[in-house]
Design goal:
The protein has a domain at 4-97 and 165-227: P-loop containing nucleotide triphosphate hydrolases (Rossmann fold), CATH 3.40.50. Helices cover 33% and strands 30% of the residues. The chain has helices at 48-55, 78-88, 104-114, 120-132, 148-160, 178-193, 205-208, and strands at residues 4-17, 20-33, 37-41, 63-68, 89-93, 166-170, 197-202, 213-218, 221-227. 41% of the residues are buried.
């Protein structure tokens, strides 16, 4: 039986907008299994990023539940939740969110601090990932000295440092050209094939086409889409 890595149950999140409450996520239920790559597709403003942040234990929902590898992160205290998140979830964002004054090596190492410190194992892992993503010759370059594609690969390496079971990706091809976009999507596919789970939100039809399964989000509500072979 395939293990469920992420389970979202009847999730709701409302914001106070300038014209009144906005239901960004409205009763969404979704699961992602190990070895599965799921894409949530929808236009800008439909609630995709809110859903992803809540799924990754970064944004507490108003109601509903999130289970990550069987654990309910929002039932943990803030410090415990941060440690659990760092150990279990990798995040990849459109804007990369690299620390501008740290070089590639230290940016990749950053998640180890949240997980309890950058020991020798983490340092070796960072070097292995840099080599895997073709960044070996860029280890001591700061983000400003990198190409856009290299910055996204640093972000991917950073997300994988703590060997997470789940990768959450937010519009990861949005700032990339077609070739670099395909490279990043191929890495996400490889992660799922190796036993991890991937949840990606995107408005890009071509990017969503790399997933095993596509669902659509419209005005905060999830509408099941075509299941791909």
């Amino acid at each position: 039986m395939t293990q469920t890595m992420l389970e979202i149950k009847d999730l709701t999140k409302t914001y106070n907008g300038p014209h009144g409450p906005v239901r960004a996520v409205d009763g969404v239920s979704l699961s992602v299994a190990a070895r599965e790559f799921v894409a949530v597709q929808g236009p800008s403003g439909c609630g995709k990023s809110t859903l992803l942040l809540a799924a990754g234990a970064l944004l507490r929902p108003d109601s509903g539940e999130v289970l990550l590898d069987g654990q309910a992160p929002y039932r943990l205290g803030p410090e415990q939740r941060a440690r659990f998140r760092a150990a279990s979830v990798g995040f990849v964002f459109q804007q990369f969110h690299l620390v501008p004054y740290l070089d590639v090596y230290d940016n990749i190492l950053a998640p180890s601090l949240a997980a309890g410190g950058a020991g020798g194992g983490a340092r070796e892992r960072a070097k292995e990932l840099a080599e895997h993503f073709g960044l070996k010759d860029r280890l001591h370059h700061v983000p400003a000295a990198l190409s856009t594609g290299e910055r996204q690969r640093v972000a991917l390496a950073r997300a994988l440092l703590n060997r997470p079971k789940l990768l959450l990706a937010d519009e990861v091809t949005g700032n990339l050209d077609a070739e670099n976009g395909r490279t990043v999507l191929d890495y996400l596919c490889d992660f799922a094939q190796s036993g991890g789970a991937v949840l990606m939100v995107t408005h890009d039809v071509d990017a969503a086409g790399h997933a095993h399964r596509i669902v659509r989000l419209e005005r905060g509500k999830l509408i099941p889409g075509e299941v791909k072979a």
